[in-house]
User: Fold Histidine triad protein from Enterococcus ureilyticus.
Amino acid sequence: MKECIFCQIIDQAIPSYKVYEDEQVYAFLDITQVTKGHTLLVPKKHVTDIFDYEPALAGEVFARVPKVARALEKAFPEMQGLNIINNNKELAYQSVFHSHIHLIPRFGKSDDFSIHFGNNQDSYSREEMQAIAEKIMKQVEQ
Assistant:
């Protein structure tokens, strides 16, 4: 797609700080650098989000995540952890609509990054949890 910024980066029409490339993926530094080494891994094929992936492409793209993660760990021995994030659709904070995976090195509790998982365990009964699981399971099996 000509108007997609990530497609333009992959095509070298827009410069980037490449960290890895092969036939299926392109990985480059996110210009925001939430933390040092913050990297984006994108499929070369334009897919909007996780909902657009074919199984083979998903396998190819997600198989590259450990390779780039290990490279970050070796490049930054002081790294204490790594967040891997994939935002899908605007409500989930996707801002570029070419699927991408964020690899965000963590160096300490003072990093300018946080994630909050609310605990709503008490909001659902066992029966409600089972009904939710069954509803999803039915769709997975189709």
The radius of gyration is 18 Å. The first helix runs from residue 5 to 10. Residues 5-141 form a domain with the HIT family, subunit A fold (CATH 3.30.428.10).
